[in-house]
Write a structure and sequence with these properties.
The chain has 508 residues and is α/β, with parallel strands linked by helices. It has helices at 51-68, 73-89, 91-101, 106-123, 126-129, 165-168, 171-176, 191-202, 217-225, 238-250, 273-285, 308-316, 336-351, 387-390, 406-414, 429-438, 474-480, and strands at residues 17-19, 22-24, 31-35, 42-47, 133-139, 142-150, 153-157, 180-184, 210-212, 229-235, 254-258, 264-267, 297-301, 355-358, 377-380, 397-403, 418-419, 422-425, 444-446, 462-463, 466-467, 482-490. The strands form 6 sheets. A 7-stranded mixed β-sheet has the order 14-15-16-13-12-18-19, sandwiched between helices. Strands 9-8-7-10-11-21 form a 6-stranded mixed β-sheet, with helices on both faces. Strand 10, helix 10 and strand 11 form a beta-alpha-beta unit. Helix 2 (73-89) packs across helix 8 and helix 3 (91-101) crosses helix 4 (106-123). Keywords: NAD, Oxidoreductase.
C-alpha cells in the first residue's frame, strides 16, 4: 500500500529578546521576517517589542546598575579580557551570521568582526582609561580632584550595515565604565548581534547588565523618552539620527548621533596609480556600497582625469555574487527596498544629465536569480545639484567629479554639507598636509581610502554627519559614558579652631 510521504519542515527560528541575562520570548503580535538577501530565504523572524518588554528591559538594567557600578575596575577589565578572547574564537561563526542576513562577503564580514574586536580590546584598558585627576594643595590644605562615574542605564540604536561592529562601538565601553545597557539592533539582521551579546554573558557579565530589545520607530521613541535611560547612542541614517538626537535631548538625556555621509576621494596625478585605483574602487563598491564611510565620490584632479577609463574597466571586472562565495568582490544589497531605492536614484542621475559610464542595475547571478544584486555603477560629469550627489545612494554607485586643481577639489568638498570622511591619494607631502589642514571634514585619510580610525582614537565625523560633541571610541567614548564629578576637599586637624568667618569667595 502506498503511503503519502511527509517532509519535515524546519521552523524559522524566532529571534529572542535578551533580558536579565537570558533569552526572553516576546509576546508581540508584530513580527518581521529576516531574509537572506542572496537567496530570499526567510532565515529568522524578529519581534517588535511591546511597551511592557521595553520597560522590563530598562527596569532590569536599572536594578543591575546598583551593583554593577560598584564592581571593581579590575573585575570589569577581566570580563572584557575574556570577552575579547571569545570573540576572537568565534570570528568565523559571527561572520557567517553577518553574511547570511546582511549579504556582505565572508572576508568583509570577518574584517568587520575584527574592527569590532578592536573596540573591545580598547575597553580592556578601562582600569587606566577611567583614572581621575588630582591637584594637591590647590589652596591651603585643599585638594581638588575629578572622578569619572558611570551615568546609569545607557541605550544604543544601531543600523543594519555593521551588525557586529556598530554595537561594539557602544556597549563594551559603556559597560566597562560601570553603566548598564539596553541595545536595539537593526531588525534587518539581528542574529549576529544576539550572538555577540551571548558571548558577553559567557565572559561572565552579571545578569541584567546588557539587555536587548527589537523593534522599529515605536521602540526607538520609547528608548529616547524613558526617564530611566540617561544616554542614547545612535548610528544610522541622517533622518532617523536627527530625530533620535532631538527627542533624546529634549528628554534630558546625553545623546550622540553618527549619521549619513557623502564621502569624497581626491586623486592627484602624482599618486601611486595602481594603489589609488585599487583603493578607491574597493572603498566605493565593498559591501555593495552600504557603508557610511564608503568613498562614493571620486574627485580626479588635473591629469588624473585620464585614469577614468581604467577605473571603469577595473570596476566592471569585479565579481558580484553571494557573500558566501569567498571569490566575490561584492555581495547583494540588504533588501529589495534598498536596491529599488538605489536604482531609482541612478535613473534620476541619468534623467538629470549625469553620464552613466557603467550601469550595474539588473545584475543577475547564476543560481541566485532572486538575489538583491547590483553591479558597480559609475557616473561621470556629475554636478553638485544632481540627485546622485546630493543624496546618499547607499549602494555600489560611484560619482566622478573632475577639477583642474587641488584648491578646486577642496572647495568642492567643503561645499558639501556632510563631514563624515574624506581621503586624498598623492605622493606629495605638501599636498597631503594642505588637504588635511584645509578640508572641513572630521576624518581624513592620506593614501587611506576609508579613514575609520583605530579604536583607541575617537570616531570624529563632523557637520551634518554628526550630532553631539562626543563620538564613539577613544577618549571621547569614556567622556560620553561617564559623568565628571569634581571634588574640592579640605580636612581640618582636630584642634584647628580656624580664623573666623570668611565671607569672601576665596579659599583661606
Amino acid at each position: 500500500m502506498n503511503q503519502a510521504l511527509t517532509h519535515a519542515v524546519t521552523p524559522v527560528p524566532a529571534v529572542p529578546l535578551h533580558i536579565g541575562g537570558k533569552h526572553h520570548a516576546s509576546s508581540s503580535s508584530e513580527w518581521r521576517d529576516v531574509v537572506n538577501p542572496a537567496t530570499q530565504e526567510i532565515v529568522a523572524r524578529v519581534p517588535f517589542s511591546t511597551p511592557d518588554e521595553v520597560n522590563l528591559a530598562v527596569a532590569t538594567a536599572k536594578e543591575a546598575f546598583k551593583t554593577w557600578r560598584n564592581t571593581p575596575l579590575a573585575a570589569r577589565m577581566r570580563i572584557m579580557l575574556k570577552y575579547q578572547h571569545l570573540i576572537r574564537e568565534n570570528i568565523v561563526a559571527l561572520a557567517e551570521l553577518i553574511t547570511r542576513e546582511h549579504g556582505k562577503t565572508l572576508p568583509d564580514a570577518e574584517g568587520e568582526v575584527m574592527r569590532g574586536l578592536e573596540v573591545v580590546e580598547h575597553a580592556c584598558s578601562i582600569a587606566t582609561l577611567q583614572l581621575g585627576e588630582i591637584a594637591e594643595n590647590a589652596a591651603t590644605g585643599v585638594d581638588v580632584y575629578n572622578i569619572y562615574q558611570p551615568l546609569g542605564v545607557g541605550a544604543g540604536i544601531t543600523a543594519f550595515n555593521f551588525p557586529v561592529m556598530l554595537p561594539c562601538f557602544m556597549f563594551p565601553i559603556a559597560i566597562a565604565c560601570g553603566n548598564t545597557f539596553v541595545l536595539k539592533p537593526s531588525e534587518q539582521d539581528p542574529s549576529s548581534t544576539m550572538y555577540l551579546v551571548e558571548l558577553m554573558y559567557q565572559a561572565g557579565l552579571p545578569a541584567g547588565v546588557l539587555n536587548v530589545v527589537h523593534g522599529g520607530a515605536d521602540v526607538v521613541n520609547m528608548l529616547c523618552d524613558h526617564p530611566d535611560i540617561k544616554a542614547v547612542s545612535f548610528i544610522g541614517s541622517t533622518h532617523v539620527g536627527t530625530h533620535v538626537y532631538r527627542r533624546a535631548s529634549e528628554s534630558g538625556k546625553r545623546a550622540q548621533s553618527m549619521m549619513g555621509a557623502k564621502n569624497h576621494c581626491v586623486v592627484l596625478a602624482d599618486a601611486n596609480k595602481e594603489q589609488a585605483i585599487n583603493n578607491l574602487i574597493g572603498a566605493a563598491f565593498g559591501a555593495a556600497g552600504q557603508r557610511c564611510m564608503a568613498n562614493s565620490v571620486v574627485v580626479l584632479v588635473g591629469e588624473a582625469r585620464s585614469w577614468l577609463p581604467e577605473i571603469v574597466a577595473r570596476s566592471q571586472a569585479l565579481k558580484v555574487g553571494p557573500g558566501s562565495d569567498r571569490d566575490a568582490d561584492l555581495g547583494p544589497m540588504v533588501s529589495k527596498a534598498a536596491m529599488q531605492r538605489a536604482e531609482k536614484l541612478i535613473q534620476a542621475g541619468v534623467d538629470e544629465g549625469a553620464q552613466l559610464l557603467l550601469d550595474g542595475r539588473g545584475h543577475k547571478v547564476a543560481g541566485y536569480e532572486g538575489g538583491n544584486f547590483m553591479g558597480p555603477t559609475i557616473f561621470s560629469k556629475v554636478a553638485a545639484s544632481n540627485s546622485v550627489y546630493t543624496q546618499e545612494i547607499f549602494g555600489p554607485a560611484m560619482c566622478v567629479v573632475e577639477t583642474d586643481t587641488l584648491d578646486q577639489a577642496i572647495a568642492f568638498i567643503n561645499a558639501n554639507p556632510n563631514g563624515n570622511g574624506t581621503s586624498i591619494f598623492t605622493s606629495s607631502g605638501w599636498a597631503g598636509r594642505k588637504f588635511q589642514s584645509e578640508i572641513d571634514v572630521g576624518q581624513v585619510g592620506i593614501n587611506v581610502a576609508i579613514p575609520v580610525p583605530v579604536a583607541y582614537f575617537s570616531f570624529t565625523g563632523s557637520r551634518a554627519s554628526k550630532l553631539g560633541d562626543l563620538g564613539p571610541n577613544g577618549k571621547q567614548a569614556l567622556y560620553f559614558w561617564t559623568q565628571t564629578k569634581t571634588v574640592t576637599a579640605r580636612w581640618f586637624a582636630p584642634d584647628d579652631g580656624g580664623s573666623g568667618v570668611n565671607t569672601t569667595i576665596s579659599m583661606k
